[in-house]
Amino acid sequence: MISRRRLVQSLVAFGASASGVARALETSRKGKTLVVVFLRGGVDGVSMVPPVGDDAYAALRPTLKLSTKGTGAALPLDGTFGLHPALAPLLPRFQAKELAVVHATGLPNAPRSHFEAQDFLESGTPGRRAPDGWLNRAGAGLSGAFSMVAVQNGMPSSMAGDGQALAFPSLKDFKVGGGAATTFEALYAQAVDDALRTSGREAFESLSTAQRDGLASRSAEHGAVYPRGLLGRRLQDVARLVHADVGLTLAATELGGFDTHLAQGAATGQLATRLDEVGRALAAFAQDLGPKLADVTLLTMTEFGRTARENGTRGTDHGTASVSLVLGGGVQGGRVVADWPSLSSGALFEGRDLKTTTDLRSVMSECLESVGLRRAQVFPDFTPAKLGLFG
Amino acid sequence: MRLGVVVLLAVGCASASRPVAEVRRSLTLPSSPLAPRARAVHVLHRLGYGPSAADLTAIESTGLERWLEGQLGPGVDAATEERLSGFKTLSLSVAQAFREYPRPQAALKAMGVDVKTEAGKEAAKDYARLNADELPRQLLVELTQAKLLRAANSKRQFEEVLVDFWFNHFNVSAEKGRVRWMVNAYEREAIRPHVFGRFRDLLGATAKHPAMLWYLDGWLSVREGFTLKLGAKKKLAAPVMEDDDGDETEPLGTGRALGLNENYARELLELHTVGVNAGYTQDDVREAAKALTGWSLEVRPRQPRFGEFVFRPLAHDDGARRVFGLELPSGLGQQHGEQLLDFLARHPATAKHLALKLCQRLVSDTPPPALVDRVAAVFLRTDGDLPSTYRAIVESPEFWSADAVATKTRTPFEFVVGAIRSVGTLDEAQRPLATALEQLGQPLYRCAPPTGYREDAAAWVSAGGLVARINFGLKLAAGRIPGVLVSLPPKDTPLEGLALAILGRPASEATLTTIRQATATDDELDERRDERPRVVGLLLGSPEFQRQ
């Protein structure tokens, strides 16, 4: 695939008119984008999408449970599941069938350590760490400075690997001062160390695009208002890249703070505050994209769920299965996709956790396919179940 | 290369059963293909935060072996301590930190102001404005400044590298709840005094420190069926430990603990000692957590031991335990936990895990397995004597081989401090430095996961990260980072000399040519123009500077 910038350069070099260039770009765009939001710390899926219709739920969660009516009640999704009230901004998207919830999902044999579980999930390889991440493998062969972008501090391991990926904390900070860009470009072109040379080349390609398009200062469209906080700022930058049509195919970002061992809270409190940021940031992102949401899929994931039972400190400990949200114009949403294992004591994994019944790789596979990427080389030796998230 | 000096070192006399002093033979450095100056530069990259003019001179005048002997054991840099004496918070105990740097809400409440009313909210704003230097955030501001000043200026370079290494190994984050009031004491009490001691003492000091007890929730882990009431006269039902905006009057909150919390036990095994691949099971984690129940914290502000470790016998599960092959009989009380730590500190898997991490920090991201094995063997043979373990690395041929030179990529902290050391000294660590580290992905004392920051280059080399480094280098060289005293080589220094001074090694021909082209501008005739800041900025952002 030829990058937009190279295309412009070559067209201009052959004397094409400006309007001709614009037309050529228009027809070259078939850009679909997958955005992966990693919620770090292990999200309590049983609070995020509470199984209020499961008989065992209330007894396991004496202080953390959500009611089905009154203030702070879970918002009904179907006969079994509700949505945490802090995620209310996403309910209209669920009703419009643009949001699907996948419950009781995770990787098989997930460890209960943040470190390992995050590594395995970002590698996309249960039980072992791969040298590269699942998103990077999925994006192998993509070219263009902004084809794979992580908007966060540092490159996430899901996007690390041989494919060309870019990470920056924000578009606003993504520029080189002092008119020295071309000199640095030359210095990094000569770097002895491969990693530094490659990163340098990527840096200068993308810098020139960002600068030319004035990406950092684009306003949100369609009246979207992002919430304060990291996730809103990061998703707004992702939306800017989508709007600018710079060839963004895979985007990653993250939010931490879900490791709620203590005083987790129910309808309000620690977890609710985090979910509020998630709900408002995702809703603003969908709003901002407007009709372009048709070409975008957003997937949330977390390294593990938490214990079905609340612990002695009104929180929950590291568990197993959790929840993923799938948002996008192509999603066959408005439903909770789950082979629900139930929370009854006999059904709990190792007597303590919500059991994983949907391999998260099946979800990841369908999301990749929804943006036109093949999953075969991403998850070797894995046959995904057909979930029909995109029909 | 023998110095012929026998150095006697008294190491941590906490336990009477162990030899008080240990005779160390003098350092024996293997032969190396490196020239003397290259050796000095390499040592300063690995055992320090990069070469500085002052430390290169010190090595040259003292001799490399003697300088290393000094670095490999305890000592004092009086000038740095003197510089830090002006900071008000560095010597505070946990109790003093809570007392003297209360949250505005708590301080106002103590003055009888209700912050829930409109007038109260106004009063809170005034309070924050008038007492800007006494807000809790000041604790972290000063600690960050002190870390930067020590890393940049201290003659005790290896000690600062080790404090950073072991803090990161036993990571706690000031972002979590009340750790902000404890992190300063944690580094000063639990980490720094033990980096030249025995691993078991370091492990025990972290296990019992309020910062660790809070960060990994150990203080609230109690035996099944027991309810621990914490600092509460009323409102028992409201656990508020995590809520920094609460208006409760008790500094450590009120609440109750009702059962086992396995957070600390898991990280103790996975991160602090035997490592994730040692082969323990979920049952071992639970058994370890039970052995450690009752290891807690005095939370009542009026108690003399407020903010300190306490063992609560009633909260302890005193049954027999079996953890990862260790059998502990019932009835041991606090000794259950102590014997567990004894066992883990001496475990061969711990030796291997620590040897690998130390070699990754001091030699290469992928250290030769034979080196790791030898270092682990020394750790086991000396019962976890850390200076002997460091020596095994410094005396290894692998450390001095040409392959080891410039093979690691600087972390953001190493880059920022190394850049400062290469252009001058740090007079005052002002806010822009902390901001730069945040943008580079390494905010100090705020690494949220217990894993600490990654050591290998893969975590830190990215297009976005390079852009941030380039910009920092340009600003620094232009004198636009306040608090850094930049003293560049004389104005008539040729490019080669400037490059040598900044990089510590000769620059490649390609780099020199590119920089020459970039600085050969139209006003070449204007001889008054000082090109040094621009050249130095280019050098600091160059790929060669990112390697160490």
- Quaternary state of the chains: heterodimer
**Taking strands numbered 1, 2, ... along the chain, how are they ordered across the largest sheet of chain B?**
1-2
Fraction of residues in helix of chain A: 25-40%
Tell the overall outline of chain A. globular
Helix content of chain B: 40-55%
Rg of chain A computed from alpha carbons, rounded to a whole number of angstroms: 22 Å
Class from secondary-structure proportions of chain A: alpha/beta
Which residue ranges of chain B are poorly predicted, with pLDDT under 50 across at least 5 consecutive positions? Answer: 1-21, 232-248
In this structure, how is the largest beta sheet of chain A organized? 9 strands, mixed
Number of strands of chain A: 11
**Alpha-beta content class of chain B:** mainly alpha
Number of helices of chain B: 26
Most extensive contact: A-B, 57 and 66 residues
Number of strands of chain B: 10
Alpha-carbon distance between the two ends of chain B: 25 Å
Structural overview:
The complex is a heterodimer of chains A (391) and B (548). Chain A is of the alpha/beta class and 391 residues long. Chain A has 12 helices and 11 strands. In chain A, helix 8 packs antiparallel against helix 9 (194-213) and helix 10 (230-244) runs parallel beside helix 11. The radius of gyration of chain A is 22 Å and the shape is globular. Chain A starts with a helix and ends in a 21-residue tail after the last helix. Chain B is mostly helical. Chain B is 48% helix and 6% strand. Chain B has 26 helices and 10 strands. In chain B, the strands form 5 sheets. In chain B, strands 1-2 form a two-stranded antiparallel sheet. Chain B has a two-stranded antiparallel ribbon with strand order 3-4. In chain B, strand 7 and strand 8 (326-328) form a beta hairpin. In chain B, helix 1 packs across helix 2 (53-62), helix 16 crosses helix 18 (386-394) and helix 20 (412-423) runs parallel beside helix 22. Chain B is globular. The two termini of chain B are 25 Å apart. Mean pLDDT of chain B is 88; it is low at 1-21 and 232-248. Chains A and B meet through helix 6, strand 6, helix 8 and helix 9 of A and helix 13, helix 22, helix 24, helix 25 and helix 26 of B.
